[in-house]
Amino acid sequence: MGPSRSVVLRPNDRLTVADLNAAMNDTDSRWMRHALALAARAEREDDEVPVGALIVDAAGDLLAEGWNRNICDHDPSAHAEIVAMRQAGMRRLARVVYGASDPKTGAAGSVFDLLADPRHNHRIEVLGGVLAEEAGARLVAYFRARRGKRLR
């Protein structure tokens, strides 16, 4: 994982919203790079759709991680997010960060917005688009390669 930017405060310093956002964006990018490495592992080791997911607590500690395992585990529910949530157990999430949107089946603001549904009694902050170009390019390349294999 790459370096992260930290914000150091001294007495009488004032922390601006811009400082907080910059620190959060650096942290999100660092963790998204880790998720992309998990995605690469899914593709490289198991020829799965390259998606990785992880769960980080409020202190910034990694609680769980997963990558797509639908095919290798013969489990249609073994999506990266589900694998990570199973590892994390019953901990409640406060924030979800993702890279590429899925305009066909996305459930966090693309096709529908499951996490923002007002019928839930727990609110989750959702931030999409972190390293979106890199995440999207990885998925596009994977599916192009898969289609190419089928055409031969």
Topology:
Blueprint: H1 17-46, E1 52-56, E2 62-67, H2 80-88, E3 95-98, E4 125-128, H3 132-151
Parallel strand pairs: 3-4
Antiparallel strand pairs: 1-2
Walk me through this protein's architecture:
By secondary structure, the protein is of the alpha+beta class. Helix content is about 40%, strand content about 10%. The longest helix has 30 residues, at about 15-45. The protein contains 3 helices and 4 strands. The strands form 2 sheets. It has a two-stranded antiparallel sheet with strand order 1-2.
Count all strands and give the number.
4
- List the secondary-structure elements in sequence, H or E: HEEHEEH
Query: Helix amount, in percent?
Result: 25-40%
Q: Report the biggest beta sheet as strand number plus sense, adding barrel if it closes.
A: 2 strands, antiparallel
The mean pLDDT is 83
Q: What proportion of the residues form beta strands (DSSP E)?
A: 5-15%
Shape label: globular
Structural class: alpha+beta
Radius of gyration: 17 Å
Separate helix tally:
3
Q: What distance lies between the first and last C-alpha atoms, to the nearest angstrom?
A: 38 Å
Which strands sit side by side, in order, in the main sheet?
1-2
- Low confidence ranges: 1-10
Which tags fit this structure?
alpha+beta; two-stranded antiparallel sheet; 3 helices; 39% helix
Task: Write a brief caption for the model.
Helices cover 39% and strands 12% of the residues. The strands form two sheets. It has a two-stranded antiparallel sheet. The longest helix is centred in the N-terminal third of the chain and has 30 residues.
